Amino acid sequence: MAVIRYLLCLCAAMLVAGCATTARNDRTWLPYLAHTAQVARAPDGFAVTPVIDWSYNADGPTQQSRTIAAFAFRDLRNVWFVLEPQPGSNLAAHTFLLFEFAGDRLLGLTIEARREADEAYSVWRGLWNAYELSYVWASARDLLTRRAVYLRHETFVYPLALTDEQELTLLSRLLERTRRLEAEPRFYNTLFSNCTNELAKATSLPWHHSFVFTGASDDHLFRRGLIPGASFEDAHARADLTDFIRTLNDRPPAEFDAALLAELRRRQD
Question: Which residues pair with 26 in a beta bridge?
């Protein structure tokens, strides 16, 4: 009973905090999170701007580029789930998606706490509307080398076993959520609006504790049949792209995507 009372008090305090503040887009953000993504949709496709495409080495960003990307819905081929374990804890990980299109083109989406220039991330502060929510569309090269090369984190890339209809529905929902976020800013929340459970909402998955303790999200998706493999251990080993991504760090975006997808397909054969 004491635990239940504590959780109820915590939820009440979070509700009060939410009513007392208003999410905004006009703050002095970290450069990587400075631009709110804009989505333009047509019946047969979409465009996103900006698409972040930074380059990195072990010391940090070496080039900060932003582009516009346009795709046809009919060209969507696969969706890949990426998990970046956070050092020091098996419970915490950052997750994001890569959408694969015809012609070996990739477009990534990472959902993050939108931090201001002088802010560091804190799980605790993330409970109390300290950060706005950011949907960042980026190149695969940016998202993967940022983690494997610059941050020196392990990076796992899993195929998702979705039908064509499910893939298109997921993409469409995330584009719409991005569009709404541009018009109506929202707060990030460690429990209810983090990188993983925002994706789970878009896929209409029932709540699971791994959407909060995100380090277990890949295992949960495997158990639901959304990550294929003879065993989770086998799927996990195939998905470890950390060292391979580092070998691609100097490739331009188009070559990076083609080389990455060739390796992913080889590992799934």
Answer: none
- Predicted confidence pLDDT, tens digits, the chain (269 residues): 554 554 445 555 555 545 448 999 999 999 999 999 999 999 999 999 999 999 999 999 999 999 999 999 999 999 999 999 999 888 999 999 999 999 999 999 999 999 999 999 999 999 999 999 999 999 999 999 999 999 999 999 999 999 999 999 999 999 999 999 999 999 999 999 999 999 999 999 999 999 999 999 999 999 999 999 999 999 999 999 999 999 999 898 889 999 999 999 999 98
**Is this prediction's pTM over 0.85?**
yes
3-state secondary structure string across the chain:
CHHHHHHHHHHHHHHHHHHHCCCCCCCCECHHHCCCCEEEEECCEEEEEEEECCEEECCEEEECCEEEEEEEHHHEEEEEEEEEECCCCCCCEEEEEEEEECCCEEEEEEEEEECECCCCCCCCHHHCCCCEEEEEEECHHHHHHHHHHHCCCCCEEEECCCCHHHHHHHHHHHHHHHHHHHHCCCECECCCECHHHHHHHHHCCCCCHHHCCHHHHHHHHHHCCCCCCCCHHHHHHHHECHHHHHHCCCCCHHHHHHHHHHHHHHHHC
Adjacent-strand bridge partners of 46: 41, 71
Q: What does the domain layout of the chain look like in residue ranges?
A: 23-268
Alpha-carbon span 107 to 71, nearest angstrom: 9
- For 146, phi and psi rounded to 5 degrees? -55, -40
